[in-house]
Amino acid sequence: MPGFLVFILSLSLLVIASLSYLILGAAADSRSQDSHRRRQIAIDAFATVLFAESDDVTKAFHVKERFERDTLIEVVSSLPIHMGDDGRKRLRSIIETPRTDRTFSRQVSARRWSRRVDAARLSGLIGSPADRAALLRDDHFAVRGVALAALSPQQVGEHADDVAAALLDPEPSVRAIAAGVLPSGGGACTMPLSAILAATSIDRRAALLAAAHITDRTLLGVLHLHARCDHPENRVLAANALAHQSPAEAESILLEMLRDPDSAVRVAAIAGLSRIGGVASLVPLRGLLDDPSWTVRTAAEKALTVIGPAGSMLLRQQNRKRAELPPSGSSGRAGIPAPVHRQLQVKP
Questions:
Q1: CATH domain 215-322 topology
Q2: Side-chain half-sphere of 205: how many Cα atoms within 13 Å?
Q3: Rounded-to-5 percentages of helix, strand, coil across the chain
Q4: What single-letter DSSP state applies at residue 339?
Q5: Ordered per-residue pLDDT tens for the chain, 348 residues
Q6: Distance between CA atoms of 293 and 315, rounded to whole angstroms?
């Protein structure tokens, strides 16, 4: 009898375990199918944002669930594309609902930083300029970084002061995002960037990276200031930024930087001059072919080749001059004939 009870108990446990496995498996399949369905809705909405030919097609989509909305935002932000104003309007019409607006307003002032990050993802599409400014000045670095990345080029110009201030953010990731975003703001960002670059401290590296993607004559003064500063890293970045400015003014500063004591700065100045391609840099670059640094000599050779036929001719002359020099330690020794290519053929 006890053996029969043990058998019944074991069988019951087996049945319960099997049923639990089936129920949990069905629930997991259901969640997976629901997740796939919502993700497909978000992807279809994304395709509508990019390729819709009429407003009626856009109105057919209503992304109401948070999962669908977040997936759509994630897809849009992860792809290296520029939607343009029309695409942003379509995306806003799909996402923005009265419920979404209320949720966004609560998330902007939420205590948990993760909820403010959710608001920052949407800040480029919905919300007022005051909401975007609050997110750009948030106490948590993740919120500031996401809010910067969500800005459109027009919004970058509207918040140029806040974006430029982010170039001095204590968090390196935020500074990197700000350096990549700021140039899209155009001329509205030039004056705030110049104000940041007015000081030559080491923490201006992100601002110098941003200046390398902006062409404006008003930046020449502050870039020249950094070209003479005490920090070699800043001087290298200043040389890179000068290469993207007006050639007439930038060339003279880069020629001055060829005499910098740091070899990395000289290499950066050579790269800038090769990009400009001015004739005035040919002779100074030829002088660097005898530089003590191997990297500087290599950079000078490449620059002379890139500048054009005149640079290539100077490089050939220098190579010919090197080939004609006697070997090391052989100068002043009698009885050693001159190299074959230097012996004169005298006709009788």
A1: Leucine-rich Repeat Variant (1.25.10)
A2: 13
A3: 75, 0, 25
A4: P
A5: 566 677 677 778 778 887 787 787 777 777 777 767 666 666 666 666 555 555 555 555 555 555 556 666 655 555 544 556 666 666 666 666 656 667 777 888 888 898 898 888 888 877 788 999 999 999 999 999 999 998 888 899 999 999 999 999 999 999 999 999 999 888 899 999 999 999 878 888 999 999 999 988 889 999 999 999 999 999 999 999 999 888 878 899 999 999 999 999 999 999 999 888 888 888 888 888 888 999 999 998 888 888 878 877 887 877 777 776 665 554 444 444 444 444 444 444
A6: 17
CB 165 within 8 A of CB 157: no
- 3-state SS class at 311: helix
Q: Which two tokens stand for residue 40?
A: 């497909």
**Tokens, residue 220:** 């020449």
- DSSP reduced 3-state for 169: coil
Helices marked H in 52-159 — which ranges? 55-59, 66-78, 84-95, 98-108, 113-122, 129-136, 141-149, 153-158
Rounded distance between C-alpha atoms, residue 84 and residue 291, angstroms: 49
Task: Kindly state the tokens that stand for 11.
Answer: 């069988």
d(CA 265, CA 272) in angstroms, rounded, equals 11
Q: Which helix (H) or strand (E) holds 313?
A: helix 309-324
Who's near 70: CB < 8 A, 6+ residues apart? 118, 121
Strand, helix or coil at 185? Answer: helix
Contacts of 82 (CB under 8 A, 6+ apart): none
The Cα–Cα gap between 119 and 135 comes to 8
Tokens of 222: 């502050």
Residue 272 belongs to what H/E stretch?
Answer: helix 263-276
Tokens for 94, please give them: 């799909």
Torsions phi, psi for 64 (to 5 deg): -105, -35
